[in-house]
């Protein structure tokens, strides 16, 4: 890997070696995964989650521990690995929001900003959405269209780009863009009641 960041194929190979029991593969995987999780979590928390108590390190640590407990998963590729990471980050962020709600007896909900929601969202007075409501709406979307649900999860909770999402799901970037736009519109309507 000659000082260059590993390619998706390199990461896939390392994941397979790790699953097969290679300690050396785990040693190579840890810094790659940690840095990518840190980048994703940092980007997500900076853009979407407005809460001082939830730190990047906390989210990364929780996701990291849970990911490495998944050793027996048959990792298809780097995208599959980070798709699971996105699911874990979603659970961590939503669970944190629920804990905060319980602690405050229903008040002071943690909010997420759906920053690149449908263009009409930017024009509306709704800038911030409740994390728990977003998760509930996303569960409804997943029941209606699992592919759109996965795209939202990868893009929003995983912080993946259109291209990374396309690679993770094995679809074209154009399909991701189209389904992302439809999903954001559906979520916006579901969350605003309009």
What does this structure look like?
This protein is mostly helical. The protein has one domain. The protein has 9 helices and 2 strands, in the order ααααβαβαααα. The chain has helices at 8-19, 23-47, 56-68, 78-103, 119-123, 131-144, 146-157, 162-169, 173-192; strands at residues 111-112, 129-130. The protein has a two-stranded antiparallel ribbon with strand order 1-2. α1 (8-19) crosses α2, α6 crosses α9 and α7 packs across α9 (173-192). The longest helix has 26 residues, at 78-103. It is globular, with a radius of gyration of 17 Å. The termini are far apart.
Task: List descriptors.
194 residues; mainly alpha; two-stranded antiparallel sheet
Write the layout of secondary structure elements.
Layout: H1 8-19, H2 23-47, H3 56-68, H4 78-103, E1 111-112, H5 119-123, E2 129-130, H6 131-144, H7 146-157, H8 162-169, H9 173-192
Helix pairs in contact: 1-2, 2-3, 3-4, 4-7, 4-8, 6-7, 6-9, 7-9, 8-9
Structure summary:
The chain is mostly helical and 194 residues long. It is 70% helix and 2% strand. Helix 1 packs across helix 2, helix 3 crosses helix 4 and helix 6 runs antiparallel to helix 7.
């Amino acid at each position: 890997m000659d000082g260059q960041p590993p390619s998706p194929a390199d990461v896939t190979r390392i994941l397979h070696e790790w699953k097969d029991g290679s300690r050396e593969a785990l040693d190579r995987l840890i810094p790659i995964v940690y840095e990518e999780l840190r980048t994703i979590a940092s980007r997500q928390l900076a853009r979407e989650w407005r809460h001082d108590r939830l730190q990047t390190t906390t989210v990364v640590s929780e996701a990291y521990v849970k990911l490495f407990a998944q050793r027996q998963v048959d990792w298809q590729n780097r995208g599959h690995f980070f798709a699971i990471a996105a699911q874990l980050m979603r659970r961590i962020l939503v669970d944190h929001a629920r804990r905060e709600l319980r602690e405050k007896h229903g008040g002071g909900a943690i909010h997420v900003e759906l920053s690149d929601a449908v263009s009409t969202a930017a024009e509306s007075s709704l800038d911030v959405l409740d994390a728990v409501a977003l998760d509930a709406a996303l569960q409804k979307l997943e029941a209606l269209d699992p592919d759109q649900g996965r795209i939202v999860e990868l893009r929003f909770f995983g912080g993946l780009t259109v291209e990374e999402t396309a690679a993770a799901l094995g679809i074209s970037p154009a399909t991701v863009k189209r389904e992302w736009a439809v999903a954001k519109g559906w979520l916006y309507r579901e969350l605003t009641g309009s």
